[in-house]
Amino acid sequence: MTTQAIIHDVMILRTKSQKASQADLKIAEDLKDTLIENKNIAAGLAANMIGENKRIIAFFVGPFPMLMLNPKIIAKKESYITEEGCLSLTGVRPVKRYKIISVEYEDTSFNKKIQEFTDFTAEVIQHEIDHCDGILI
After folding, report:
1. Looking at the 3D structure of the chain, how many domains does it have?
2. Which SUPFAM superfamilies did the record assign (predicted)?
3. Which of 52, 106, 123, 128 is flagged as catalytic?
């Protein structure tokens, strides 16, 4: 298990992430390990939060950690305004999210998948994909 320090530098966090490849699977595992290590304070992480400029996110679905490589939201329904915090930033901020999203991504075997998520899990995924796009709350 390899955990990484959480990055707080907004210049790093505002940089758009590069597409993940087979060579980045170690980053994905480190990201998952870091999420598990921070499970009491984080619902999800993006690779740039551990200093890796790759389009990889990790989040919990119930008690289980899940990894997505190269995720993108392809559909979204039912917008709402909420407040979110971030492990890389102090405080909470208002943000627009969607209750239902469909995400296209690759698993760690690089199989393309499309999956629908709702409620809190959808909110976390949107937050982490924003990180991949260099968007901060």
Report:
1. 1
2. Peptide deformylase (SSF56420)
3. 128
Sign of CA dihedral 136, 125, 52, 42: positive
Task: Write down the mean pLDDT value for the chain.
Answer: 95
User: Which CATH number fits the domain that encloses residue 116?
Assistant: 3.90.45.10
Residue 17 lies in a domain: yes
pTM (two decimals): 0.95
- CA neighbor of 45 nearest in space, from 62, 65, 26, 25: 65
**Domain region containing 48:** 10-132
Q: Would you call 37 a catalytic residue per the annotation? A: no
DSSP symbols for 68-110: EEEEEEEEEEEEEEEEEEETTEEEEEEEEEEEEEEEEEE-TT-
pLDDT of 72 reads 97
